[in-house]
Amino acid sequence: MATEEQKKQNILRLTQIALTSLSASVWDTLGESSFALTTLMGDRILEMFEKEMGLEIAGESPEAVIREVQRIFVDEFGFAQEIQTNIMDGGNKIELRVKNCVNHAFSDKLAAAGVQKPYICPIMNTTAAALRRMGYKVRNDIVKWNEGGGSIITLVKV
Fold first, then answer.
1. Neighbours of 74 (CB within 10 A)
2. Which sign, positive or negative, has the C-alpha torsion 120, 151, 93, 129?
3. Within 13 Å and on the Cβ side, how many CA atoms surround 41?
4. Which of 48, 85, 112, 153 has an alpha carbon 20 to 30 Å from 92's alpha carbon atom?
5. Please, which residues have CB within 8 angstroms of residue 101's CB and are 6 or more apart in sequence?
6. What percent of the chain has pLDDT over 70?
7. What does pTM read for this prediction?
């Protein structure tokens, strides 16, 4: 019989298998159009951040909201060691460099399953949801950043 810790690890493993399989199936069917299906994920995480983590969006600048979303992912969840933000093109392009992300190994599993871009990234989807809530329409993209153990997320206002 498995110990409680082994059971937790087995649950995590099953969840990863299910999520990897679903993500790969969606990617195989839709390719980069898969990004369009992630808005609900970002909206739900954003809602949790507002209700449980004290995130406030109304009246804040996009930069302040992005910094607070990053702080929650880093300080409250330990999801990444650091997230660096570069704002370019007069504020129309935002680049997030996610360093030492806990999802890096999972992104490797997604890539092995044929998913060319880890479109289900919670950081990318939550940041995009926050910007949408502020009235901005954004196009997002993500690439693995092996040197940093994470990813580089690009959000472009359209």
1. 18
2. positive
3. 16
4. 48
5. 79, 80, 107, 123, 149, 150, 151
6. 100
7. 0.93
